[in-house]
Amino acid sequence: MSLPTLHVAVLMGGWSSERPVSLMSGEGVAKALESKGHKVTRIDMDPEVALRLAETKPDVVFNALHGAPGEDGTVQGMMDLMGLTYTHSGLATSVIAIDKELTKQALVPHGIPMPGGRVVKCAEIHERDPLPRPYVLKPVNEGSSVGVAIVTDEGNYGNPVSPQAKGPWQEFDELLAEPYIRGRELTTAVIGGPKTGERALLVTELKPKSGFYDFDSKYTDGMTEHVCPAEIPDEIAQACKDLALRSHQLLGCRGTSRADFRWDDTQGIEGLFLLEVNTQPGMTPLSLVPEQARACGMEYPELVEAIIAEALADRQAGVK
């Protein structure tokens, strides 16, 4: 694939809890584009971002933001109004995919297996457990395992959960409570969109040394072993790829996405559950999408250009 020389604005940073990751993703993307001869303008998002984009007049915006407001449809809506071409998913998809409860409502009716559970007010969990233990509490619309707590009988959160115990209930008014699924952490990347064709790449198994794949495990070198491709039965690997691709298509994702799974290997295929779909997965040196692409023979600069090619194809087709 060969792109014409472009002026690309790389949108990164912002003010979400994932700002440091976004800055790493954005810098990696910018350097890759420069290595391919493209002109790059780096934009660390602030409240004047619309003015800065208007002044920059890029051919395309590479959206390297993670978390709100860059991943929840807010920035996408702004760029739609400005008539800008941008990478990754559009407004409607972003609104749904960042919200774990809306994602379930969109996917489960189509046969995508996801954990049960419900959204609970934090005041409620300090009175009684919302689900039988063990269960997981997580923010409804945060990524990178930000604010996730696993509540067990042996844990130190108290019974019921104490308001004084350090956890996501101190930062959010409500949380998603889900049954804890024992087993293995798997993830699958999908690249492309309707105009260029979508394909699932590989399955990676994540083995965090801390026992839980949290924010630090994701972004600290040496804290998580990546087994790529995962050493799992062919049936499970194919199921992960099929479910990731179907979820990407059902949600209307573009450019790239990453589907995260838990697999209880004592239950076979019945133990596989999709946890969430990330519409703007990380592009840092430790990120999973570049790693899977590389294992499939696509180096980092080519991956970045492929994501941009999808955005340009959508513009030509009038897709938003």
Automatic annotation (TrEMBL):
GO biological process: cell wall organization; peptidoglycan biosynthetic process; regulation of cell shape
Residue sites binding Mg(2+) 1 per the record: 260, 276
Active site: 18, 144, 287
Source superkingdom: Bacteria
Annotated EC: 6.3.2.4
Residues that, per the record, bind Mg(2+) 2: 276, 278
GO MF annotations in UniProt: ATP binding; D-alanine-D-alanine ligase activity; metal ion binding
Cellular compartments per GO CC: cytoplasm
Keyword terms: ATP-binding, Cell shape, Cell wall biogenesis/degradation, Cytoplasm, Ligase, Magnesium, Manganese, Metal-binding, Nucleotide-binding, Peptidoglycan synthesis
Subcellular compartments: Cytoplasm
Cofactor detail note: Binds 2 magnesium or manganese ions per subunit.
Residues of the ATP-grasp domain: 104-309
Catalytic function, reaction form: 2 D-alanine + ATP = D-alanyl-D-alanine + ADP + phosphate + H(+)
Cofactor(s) required, per the database record: Mn(2+); Mg(2+)
SUPFAM superfamilies, sorted: Glutathione synthetase ATP-binding domain-like, PreATP-grasp domain
Pathway(s) where this gene product acts: Cell wall biogenesis; peptidoglycan biosynthesis
PANTHER family hit by this protein: D-ALANINE--D-ALANINE LIGASE (PTHR23132), D-ALANINE--D-ALANINE LIGASE B (PTHR23132:SF23)
Stored HAMAP family: Dala_Dala_lig
Protein role: Cell wall formation.
Protein family (similarity comment): Belongs to the D-alanine--D-alanine ligase family.
Protein name (database record): D-alanine--D-alanine ligase
Taxonomic source organism: Novosphingobium silvae
Phylogenetic placement of the source organism: Bacteria, Pseudomonadati, Pseudomonadota, Alphaproteobacteria, Sphingomonadales
